[in-house]
Each structure stands twice: as structure tokens, then as C-alpha cells.
Amino acid sequence: MTRALTASLAAALIAAAGIAFVVGPQRPAARAVAVIGPAAAEESGAPIYYQDPDGKASYSLVPRKTPDGRDYRPVPAGADISFDDEQAAAPPPAATAGGERKIKYYRNPMGLPDTSPTPKKDSMGMDYIPVYEGEDSEDGSVRLSPGKIQRTGVKSEPAARRVIRTIVRAPGTIALDERRISVIAMRSESFILKVADVTTGSHVVKGQPLMEVYSPSVSSAAAEYLATITSKTTAGDVQYGRGSRQRLMNLDVPESAIAAIENSRTVPTSIAWTSPRDGIVLERNAIEGMRVQPGGVLFRIADHSMVWALIDVAERDLGMIAKGQPVTVKARSFPGREFTGKVQVIYPEINKETRTARVRIELQNPDLILLHDMYVDAEIDTGSGEAALTVPESAVMDTGSRQAVFVDRGQGRLEPREVKLGNRGGGFVEVRDGLAEGDAVVVSANFLIDAESNLKAALKGFAEGAQQ
């Protein structure tokens, strides 16, 4: 009977909205339209009206076509017609023995936290809305009708195990490897006779001549060594000769210069000083004719084939960093070029101004394009490689001190549940406690559901207070 009454009302509304009568002697009268009665339509299954095939709010009492030639969809009397999907789709509330629903309280029609145990009007004259038994849940869950779920775009997705790959991105700079820097300094009073064509920034190789040096102490040690190796060899002379050679080595005389003394059997007036390693000349202080005191730095040479990337990681991300994690470094000067390495050292201090910790990565630099103090960007892969229970990040309602999700329990019931979270990455977040694998969680329209639950909780509290 209710369905027939609804169908009759629908036909009446469509007829009132869709048929226009034109009055006037020069206009033809409106044509008569045969409308099938609701009872007869329900018995015969004939359509009572026609609706746009795309579901738009366009109806007709007679067959009709869209502008693109498609037929309107016939709607029979037996179809699920309802102008209030909230009441039609909601589960039937509790009823008394006489079939009437029992009203628990009345709530403010504007959604304000104000309830009344008796019928009431607000300041604008609007009636308070009755709340029946069974419409508010006792377990804290939120109940939504299918119509509201569809309109608000509520979607659910089961919690599943995934491998989370969390990438920590941080800036940094290139630094020289402290173990690959050499300083050339004299260990005795010396005079520089000649300097090779080597300047700051020049690339040198191991054994390349850098300068010619005269040192009285070196010449004296060389003469003593030459005397021992040219005299008649005896057991004592051999030991004495080893001591003379060691004296030259203590004066840091290059091995090539000692070998030249042994081969020529002469004491040179000057010694050719060579580079101890391959690298770039960072500093040159040697000048022809200058006098050098012991300890004076003449050249500083650094090997650039291996460099350090010093990355400043934010303090909040420091707990995810560990030694051995793979790192990809990109230089801002060379877009598209990537350098790979691993975390070697995590420095045990925090910069109090920037609240960052320094991490060191060793990088191969075979073509020497990474330069000292160059800016770089690093991506540290902190994933463990093990699958963990995860949900989409959009499913989490984070208040700062608490995190919760809405679990879909079916039939429009959504239960708020507090969870404990872990790592994040790739649009997902790890759930360490509060969910089981397969639990369906709401991933969209969470804030609308949260507002609904807060409103119901407030109304319920006011209602209980009013009853007391």
C-alpha cells in the first residue's frame, strides 16, 4: 500500500511538473495523456513513468528520447522508489508491541548539541527531530544508510601485508676523504732550487716530480750512506749501512731519490721531490729560491677518486637510519646522473641550530666530477624488506596524540578503533596494533564520518543528562 501511494505521488508530481497547458485561441490545446493507475500498474507491471538513462533528474510520463537518440528508462511500479533514501535504506528501528516506534529524545534540527525529552521548537520555530530507539548505537559505532554512503563517497579497503619502502630525502655536500690527503713538508732546513710546472688545481700522479730541493742534512746522510755501500762489505758494515739508509728515510727522502744514489754511486747536490699519490693539488706554497724551515707545508694533494657525501638528516628521521643502508646521491650540477653508496658513519651529535644529524656516505668518483663542497641531494632507502600489516595513509585519523581508523562492519556500521602506527612509505602506513589482516577500513570521507560520530556522541551525552 505504501509503494502504491508513493508511486501515485510520483506520477502526480511528474504530471504537475511535466505537462503544460496553453490557453488561447491561437494555440492548440494540450493533448490528453493516459496515465495508468498505481494499482493497475503494479498488477500489470507496466511503467508508471520514464527516467533519463543517465540517472539525471529528468522524467516523462510518455516514452521519450534523449537529444542523442537514446530511449528513456521505464520505471515500473514495483521499482524501489523512495524520496527519502535515509528512511528507506536504514534498518527498521525498534518498535513497541503496537507497532509504533518509541522515541528516546528530540535533538536540535540544526545539529547543535541540544536535546529535549519532550517535543520542542528552536528559536527559529523549527521542530526538534525525534530520535528513536535503535537509531543510536551503544558500542560507539556510526551507522550510515546506503544512500549517505554513496553520496559522501565512503570507500573501504582491507588491511593487508605489504613491504614498505620508506625513502628519507636530505641535502648534503661533498667532502674530501680525510684518509686520501697528503701533505709535503720538509723535515730539515732546506732550500728550493726549482719548482715544476704544477699549480693549485693541477692533477698529478704518484712519482711525478714537484720540485728540486737542497738540504745540508740530506746531503750529509746521502754521503754517509754512499760511503757504507762502496766500502768493503763486512757484517758490521752491513748493519751500519742499514742505519744510514734509515736516516734518509727518516728525512722523508723519496724512494726514487735513494734508488738514484744507489745506482749512480754519487752524492747529488739536489734531490728531486715527487708526489706521494695521485690527486689534485689543493695548496702550493713552494717558490723557487725560498728557504724552508722544518715542518713548512709546501704542497697539499688530495685523491678525488673516492669522496664523502655528508648528508644532514632531520632529527625526526634519524631513528630510521642505520649503517649499511643503500643511498642514491644526485648532484645538482649534473641532473640525471646518480651515484650509489652506503651509509658508513652516523655522527654522534645533533646540530642544535638546524636539529639535524650528519650521515657519511662514501662515493666512487672515477671521472672526478664530484668536487669539494658541491651540493647534493640524497635518498636513503630505510625499508627493512619484510612485509608488515598496512593500511592506506588516508584511512588514519590523526589527532596528534591518538590515531584511529573506521572499521567497516557491514550494513552501514562503521566502528572507530584506535591503532598504533609504525613506518610510512609509498602511500601506506604500518599498523602495529589495533587491526587484523583483512579488516576493512574506510579510506575516504573519514572526516565526514568523524563529524557524524562526534555529533552523535555529543547528542547521546546530552540525552543521558536530560533523562537523569
Automatic annotation (TrEMBL):
Record-linked Gene3D superfamilies: 2.40.30.170, 2.40.420.20
InterPro entries: Beta-barrel_RND_2, BSH_CusB, CzcB_C, MFP_Cation_Efflux, RND_pump_MFP
CusB-like barrel-sandwich hybrid domain location: 182-302
Region (Disordered) residue spans: 135-154
CzcB-like C-terminal circularly permuted SH3-like domain sequence ranges: 389-449
Domain CusB-like beta-barrel as annotated: residue spans: 307-381
An annotated GO cellular component: membrane
GO process annotations (BP): copper ion export; plasma membrane copper ion transport
Keywords: Ion transport, Signal, Transport
One of the record's GO molecular function terms: transmembrane transporter activity
Classification via Pfam families: Beta-barrel_RND_2, BSH_CusB, CzcB_C
Family to which the UniProt record says this protein belongs: Belongs to the membrane fusion protein (MFP) (TC 8.A.1) family.
Protein known as: Efflux RND transporter periplasmic adaptor subunit
